[in-house]
Amino acid sequence: MKSPYILCINPWIFDFAAYDHWSKPLGLLYVAAYLQQRGVAVELIDCLDKHHPELLKRQGRGEAKISKYGIGQFHREVVPTPEPLRYMPRQFARYGWPEDIFINELRQRPRPAAILLTSGMTYWYPGPMRVAEICREVFPGVPLLLGGIYASLMPEHARENLQPDFLVSGPGEIEAANILADILKQPHLREAHPQDIDDFPYPAFDLYRHPDYYVTMASRGCPFRCTFCATYKIDEKFSQRRPEAVAEELVRQTRRYRVRDVAFYDDALLMQPEKRIKPILRELIARKQALRFHTPNGLHARFIDEELAALMYASGFKTIRLSLESVAKERRRDIHNKITPGEMTRAVENLVRAGYRPRDLQTYIIMGLPGQPLEEVLETILYANSLGIHIRLASFSPIPGTVDYQRAIEKGFLPEDPDPLITNTTVIPMERTREAYERYYQISQFTRMLNEGLKLGVNMLNPPALRDELMRAFERVKGWGEDYK
Ligand code: B12
Ligand code: SF4
Fold it and tell me: 372 in helix, strand or coil?
């Protein structure tokens, strides 16, 4: 290892639930790659890495258990539930390595010149907070730079609770290089920053001992402004990369890391389809790449015409999540008219014509917005179920700076200055009572039942179908009570 070097850290997740759905600290990997490109030696500690040899030893495994398409469970240890969440009838856990594995990882390294700590969801702040505490103990005096989503959305809270030496809000490549220019006394790090999004390097997956999949972005930001979304606060402007550059990256990087699965983190991957996504997919098909694509973030279904659906099928899109949010007219107008039920139906028809089964497709439905009636959620669920597609309920997580955050405060659902912990998506924070939680829990169980029915080839809401398969599905529903403690 060259000296001096920079240590990048992806912290634990503290939550009721967490799963590796192509979950990588992509922002930190972009920052790391940018520094590497400028000659800085960089190391990574990812507390969520499932391949750590000591973790595997303790789990009694020779190798990490990886499911279909490269995803899998994080190591989980139950921890005391923080005070504001005690009423929740679920166990709180730390996801990722046991703490001592992390401390040993730090201790066996030479002292870094700086630590670059990233942060995810705002309500996951206990993770970066604990990492910051430990880093200060093991490496006192080493400058700590904090960036990422929590740092971008709640900079004041982060400053107060983590006390980083530097906090970067928003895109971090250039900012981090400028700060490190002084720390490392390398003035060249301030110079020649690219203007074009395609001149930034690929994310530094070389820092992983064993990548199970690759993650990238073909664009940054989003041109929409949905009332519950804070994307505009993280990336103010919407920019898309050149299709040739994206296709080249996918070919090169998946060969380099020997992976077939690729997740796109874009907020608006399908915008301007003729100029962007279609040429990317045509190029990949022409180059005969046997890749599998996943879009954990929702897609704008209105752009999926017959041609795009066919290209998605031919190029290997396997996980397709379409943003629906709500069928209610007023809601749709309010959250930005980004999709109508008619457009959703057409997108599903096009995808089915291209070769997908409806149950291969998934849709996001939002629930728990301030003042949103439960009937609206149920109506949307019924509509999505009539299309035969898998439903993913996304419960509202109020984010500072958004219209719905303000509304939640005005309607008295949220205090003026809430602990971000109570904005956790699992909490259904609008009415913080066990009864409210149970109502929403029932909706989610109902949805699971519909989804389970689709897997069995049964539409649960179609009475003639209520036969043996339905009874089998009910048996499985009973089993789900297990995680409701
Ligand atoms: C991909 C994504 C997901 C993925 C998974 C992400 C993951 N890593 O696990 C999936 C689809 C699973 C997901 C789920 C959810 N998400 Co989401 N997601 C995103 C998204 C689109 C991109 C995040 C990302 O990685 N960006 C890519 C990189 C390049 O950006 P970045 O991390 O910000 O990094 C840059 C800077 O921050 C900085 N930086 C980063 N680290 C560091 C470190 C240092 C030291 C420095 C200097 C700089 C720096 O530099 C980087 C490069 O410029 C964001 C929106 C957005 N545009 O950010 C929402 C977002 C983070 N998600 C959000 C929400 C609401 C959710 C859900 C709650 C939705 C729901 N209701 O179910 C769930 C929660 C899941 C859970 N388990 O709790 C919110 C934030 C919520 C919050 N309270 O924090 C966001 C902001 C979108 C929104 N609606 O406003 N999400
Ligand atoms: S379309 Fe998606 S990313 Fe864009 S503002 Fe709406 S919710 Fe956010």
Answer: coil
